[in-house]
């Protein structure tokens, strides 16, 4: 990998073909206003109410309070100079119980946001689902139930009918791997089930829901549709850890990417896993052609053979010799891993891989809670290194079209509450005051040089 530079002009010059530049957020993490205006109850409303479950006992409110302060967000995005803004729609704002008619006040809110972005010259790039489905649907089985795919297709149709006259670019389901493995497998995200391999049916139901949503969006005139998944480069701790690498790569990467890009699941039986609950034309629906494939990347993963008896044949271990983010050893900083991952996807899927969008990339570091100007040089170094890795992958022949920083704002970081801060903009969780960090200025300078 080439030596990264922090100089915006030199880094921008690496991209001989123009790249689109974006920043991202998600609804539950930034909107606040969890009651009123017809909003329903999501699985995260239920989860934050569990005593002791959120590290700092926060509840996502007020946080950025973007439901009321979305104009502030648009002003920041305009100042930043991004081409697109990735945000997510709150299912429970639009369809409070996950069935039945839409809530007009929820639709109106996203109308205001979309129109404001367009007026500012920013392309709205919404995500239909970012982990916050209605609690009523979870009570009926959630993603363990095949019926969830039908409910999601209905929700996608509502969104497409209302916003499709102005929105042509869409993400469908954010990181199905996280919902399956962490939400239903390990219980570290809502709905906090601990089913281990019993969660595998949620993979199929999410991918089926995605495919049905693609068709609904396409019917409404969408021109650019893709799915953003969290992917990781899997490495062995020891030379004889190849089987552990293959197993974890299957569970984190291939079981999600293969059906989308090849129309088939990998051979699960070889790994001692049960078959997916496939029916009829499911695989054709799942493999409905995409306009782009979204890759969310934060860190590589090092694995080794399990040292203790248990259901998992591998262990995740710290990556030797790598610095880490605020999450500690679980999140090593290794930009070269992004380059390797992108090249691996190109080699693995060939011409079946559509153009790639980096749907999320960013890092959290310890920062003050009170409103202040943050000189976050460590974040600038992280971003510069990973953007340089994208340039290296493009030079190696990978078709990458867009790069997205996670996140525009400090936000509610799920079970970690407000203890982890990813934002280009510092947010005081009590007052919602926004203060751009040094990384905001750096990213703005990079975009300006890239657009020059």
Annotate the secondary structure layout:
Elements: H1 8-12, E1 20-24, H2 27-30, H3 43-48, H4 66-80, E2 84-88, H5 91-94, H6 104-119, E3 123-129, H7 135-139, H8 147-163, E4 169-173, H9 176-186, H10 201-219, E5 224-230, E6 234-236, H11 242-262, H12 282-286, E7 292-296, E8 301-305, E9 314-317, E10 324-325, E11 328-332, H13 335-349, E12 356-360, H14 377-395, E13 400-406, E14 425-427, E15 434-436, H15 438-451
Parallel strand pairs: 1-2, 1-13, 2-3, 3-4, 4-5, 5-7, 6-8, 7-12, 12-13
Antiparallel strand pairs: 8-9, 10-11, 14-15
Report strand %.
15-25%
- How widely separated are the two ends? 26 Å
Order of helices and strands: HEHHHEHHEHHEHHEEHHEEEEEHEHEEEH
**Broad CATH class:** Alpha Beta
Strand arrangement, largest sheet? 1-2-3-4-5-7-12-13
CATH superfamily name? Glycosidases
CATH topology: TIM Barrel
Descriptive terms for the model:
452 residues, alpha/beta, TIM Barrel, 8-stranded parallel β-barrel, Beta-glucosidase, EC 3.2.1.21
Can you characterise this structure?
This protein is α/β, with parallel strands linked by helices and 452 residues long. The protein has a single domain (8-451), classed as TIM Barrel, CATH 3.20.20.80. It has 15 helices and 15 strands. An 8-stranded parallel barrel has the order 1-2-3-4-5-7-12-13, surrounded by 6 helices. The chain has a 3-stranded mixed β-sheet with strand order 6-8-9, covered by helices on one side. The protein has a two-stranded antiparallel ribbon with strand order 10-11. The model has no long low-confidence stretch (mean pLDDT 97).
């Amino acid at each position: 990998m080439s030596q990264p530079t922090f100089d915006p002009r030199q880094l921008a010059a690496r991209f001989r073909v123009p790249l689109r530049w974006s920043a991202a957020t998600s609804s539950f993490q930034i909107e606040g206003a969890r009651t009123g205006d017809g909003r329903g109850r999501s699985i995260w409303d239920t989860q934050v109410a569990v005593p002791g479950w959120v590290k700092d006992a926060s509840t996502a409110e007020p946080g950025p309070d973007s439901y009321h302060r979305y104009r502030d967000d648009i002003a920041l995005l305009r100042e930043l100079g991004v081409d697109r803004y990735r945000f997510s729609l709150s299912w429970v704002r639009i369809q409070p119980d996950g069935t039945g008619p839409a809530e007009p006040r929820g639709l109106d809110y996203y109308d205001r946001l979309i129109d404001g972005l367009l007026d500012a010259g920013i392309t709205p790039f919404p995500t239909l689902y970012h982990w916050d489905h209605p609690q009523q649907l979870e009570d009926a089985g959630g993603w363990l139930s095949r019926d969830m795919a039908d409910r999601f297709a209905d929700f996608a149709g509502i969104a497409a009918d209302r916003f499709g006259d102005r929105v042509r670019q869409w993400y469908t389901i954010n990181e199905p791997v996280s919902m399956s493995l962490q939400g239903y497998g390990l219980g570290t995200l809502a709905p906090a089930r601990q089913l281990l391999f019993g969660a595998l049916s949620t993979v199929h139901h999410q991918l089926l829901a995605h495919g049905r949503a693609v068709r609904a969006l396409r019917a409404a005139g969408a021109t650019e549709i893709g799915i953003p998944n969290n992917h990781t480069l899997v490495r062995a701790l020891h030379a004889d850890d190849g089987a552990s690498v293959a197993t974890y790569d299957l569970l984190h990467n291939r079981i999600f990417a293969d059906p989308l890009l090849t129309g088939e699941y990998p051979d699960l039986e070889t790994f001692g896993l049960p078959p997916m609950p496939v029916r009829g034309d499911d695989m054709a629906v799942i493999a409905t052609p995409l306009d782009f494939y979204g890759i969310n990347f934060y860190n590589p993963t090092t694995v080794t053979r399990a040292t203790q008896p248990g259901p998992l044949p591998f262990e995740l271990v710290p990556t030797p010799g790598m610095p880490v983010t605020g999450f500690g050893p679980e999140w090593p900083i290794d930009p070269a891993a992004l380059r390797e991952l992108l090249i691996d996807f190109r080699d693995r899927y060939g011409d079946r891989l559509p153009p790639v969008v980096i749907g999320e990339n960013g890092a959290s570091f310890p920062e003050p809670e009170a409103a202040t100007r943050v000189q976050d040089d460590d974040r600038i170094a992280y971003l510069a290194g990973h953007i340089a890795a994208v340039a290296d992958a493009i030079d190696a022949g990978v078709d990458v079209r867009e790069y997205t920083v996670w996140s525009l704002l400090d936000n509610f970081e799920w079970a970690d509450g407000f203890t982890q801060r990813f934002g280009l903009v510092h947010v005081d969780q009590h007052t919602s005051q926004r203060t751009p960090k040094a990384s905001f200025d750096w990213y703005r300078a990079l975009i300006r040089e890239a657009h020059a």
